[in-house]
Amino acid sequence: MSEVQVRPFQRSDRDQLTALVNAHVAALVPGASVSVNTVLSQLEREPAEEIVDPWVTGRRTLVAVQRQAIVAGALLLRYGSGPEVGPGYRGAGEIEWLVFRPDARPAGDALLA
After folding, report:
1. Beta strands of 1-113 (E only): which ranges?
2. Those residues with Cβ within 8 angstroms of residue 3's Cβ, 6 or more apart along the chain or in another chain
């Protein structure tokens, strides 16, 4: 297995990351998929989360690259620590989602590390 490189998401990764997300979506709902714009929008903010999303003070998307292919991706959130943030979220971080190819478990592990 070739070396896995973990790095921040770049806009040029959008098609490969969307294909990876869609592979997982289709496994749950055959024939279903999301658009590149849907994935990019979620990386920027979660408008349907009217209460929790404003508490997010940082978003970071990481990808794992192997042989120039995106084989894993993760969206990480950081919540604020002010009084407006619910006590269960205050100062916390969260893995919003993590996806990886079935044959790329080490890449998923590398994102978690």
Report:
1. 5-8, 56-66, 69-79, 93-100
2. 66
